[in-house]
Design brief:
The chain has helices at 5-15, 18-25, 32-43, 87-98, 112-118, 133-145, 164-169, 182-186, 189-196, 219-226, 233-242, 255-263, 285-296, 311-319, 329-360; strands spanning 61-63, 66-68, 72-74, 103-104, 124-127, 150-154, 246-252, 268-271, 301-305, 324-327. By secondary structure, the chain is α/β, with parallel strands linked by helices. The strands form two sheets. It has an eight-stranded parallel beta sheet with strand order 3-10-9-8-7-6-5-4. A two-stranded antiparallel ribbon has the order 1-2. The protein is globular, with a radius of gyration of 20 Å. The relative contact order is 0.21. The structure holds flavin mononucleotide. Flavin mononucleotide (FMN) is lined by residues 23-24, 37, 75-78, 105, 107, 126, 154, 250, 272, 274-275, 277, 305-308, 327-330, 332.
């Protein structure tokens, strides 16, 4: 019986190979920041309030001027199509049916064009600054052609954080059958049939678009060669001047950077430490959310991610000033567990948890969320 995101995580672990599960489940180095994201959310306690009319608690809100059914979006995650065949398409469809945004990663398995063709609701597109700016430019043009409703530029990856689990497991793109993983893969026949021997198994946005991509079999090889460690705020201006739509800057974890993001023309910032996958030892997102909200001071929208495993976690972010949360791992586990139905189930679980939590804190809807919901908002 699936009651929580943790149940979906357990199911995902049984259904996909270890290397793929660990790619999502793990963080960088000793995974301190990964753990802190969840632990600091857990440590916040709600203030129970009674005898408030909460009979019509509405979760609807807006993000970047668009109405959404609850304050949640699906974060960009690379390789989602390895967790389930056509993973990005299924995720985008589940999000669209639910009325929340889906953000496609540049490092996806299904391409922008694949997702556009398979869905009828605009999605967001995420990119990194690459050393080959021509590739960034081409991606922007492809996102415009696909009518993406926002561009998310991820700032916290000048180079790839070192993730011990991935190194240990020898994760390769596309996934390969080897002596080392043969038993593991043999015990996941449904995954092997659909993904390992399926149609889409590698970086859909890159194949056919960058010279030499076909020869790049290894994730580290691609990332190490292309992430631009020299990028600065001037390069954000470069993106801003080329992207005519809404711009979301992701990876802000500091009040000073929040002000710089605002000056660079952000329509929204995402308070994020990449789910604990980049700078290990950085603070949890929920602990710095209030200082970023204060620095932004209502001049653009503040979203947050990192450690959200329940509607209660979303409620805590809202209480501390976020407009909405984003989910990475919770999405991937749900996708691996049961495809589109799994993602819909995860969103349903979170919606119910959020509704009940708002009601029991005496908060008559997402729009009314605030620090009054917590015993010690800090
Ligand atoms: C497997 C995986 C792949 C990710 N790939 C990307 C990516 O391609 N681009 C990006 O901006 N963030 C990426 N992220 C970070 C997420 O967008 C998000 O910031 C993070 O997952 C939030 O934390 P959570 O996983 O605890 O929900 C990835 C996260 C995971 C778990």
């Amino acid at each position: 019986m699936i009651q929580s995101i943790d149940d979906l995580r357990k199911l995902a672990k049984r259904r996909i190979p270890r290397a793929i599960f660990d790619y999502a489940d793990g963080g960088s180095y000793q995974e301190r920041t990964l753990r802190a994201n969840a632990a600091d959310l857990d440590a916040l306690t709600f203030r129970q309030r009674v005898m408030v009319d909460v009979s019509s608690t509405s979760l609807a809100t807006t993000v970047l001027g668009t109405e959404i059914s609850m304050p949640l979006a699906i974060a960009p995650t690379g390789l989602a199509g390895l967790f389930h065949a056509d993973g990005e398409i299924l995720g985008a469809r589940a999000a669209a049916a639910f009325g929340i945004p889906f953000c496609l990663s540049t490092m996806s398995i299904c391409s922008i064009e694949d997702v556009r063709a398979a869905t009828n609701r605009p999605f967001w597109f995420q990119q990194y600054l690459m050393r080959d700016r021509g590739f960034n430019q081409a991606l922007i043009e492809r996102a415009i052609a696909a009518q993406c409703s926002a561009l998310m530029l991820t700032l916290d990856l000048p180079l790839l954080g070192e993730r011990w689990r991935d190194a240990r497991n020898g994760l390769s793109i596309p996934p390969r059958l080897s002596l080392r993983n043969a038993w593991d893969v043999a015990t996941k026949p449904a995954w092997a049939m659909k993904v390992l021997f399926g149609k889409r198994r590698t970086f859909g946005n890159l194949v056919g678009h960058i010279p030499g991509a076909a020869g790049l079999l290894n994730l580290a090889e691609w990332t190490h060669s292309q992430f631009d460690a020299s990028a600065t705020w001037r390069d954000v201006d470069w993106v801003r001047s080329r992207w005519p739509g809404r711009l979301i800057l992701k990876g802000v974890l500091d009040a000073e950077d929040a002000r710089l993001a605002l000056a660079a023309g952000a329509d929204a910032v995402v308070v994020s430490n990449h789910g604990g996958r980049q700078l290990d030892g950085a603070p949890s997102t929920i602990s710095v959310l209030p200082e970023v909200v204060a620095a932004i001071d209502g001049r653009c929208e503040v979203l947050f991610d990192g450690g959200i495993r329940s509607g209660q976690d979303i409620a805590k972010g809202l209480a501390l000033g976020a407009r909405a949360g984003l989910i990475g791992k919770s999405f991937l586990f749900a996708l691996a567990a049961a495809g589109e139905a799994g993602v819909t189930q995860a969103l349903t679980i979170m919606r119910n948890e959020l509704r009940v939590t708002l009601a029991l804190t005496g908060t008559p809807g997402a729009a009314a969320a605030g620090p009054h919901m917590l015993t010690d908002p800090g």
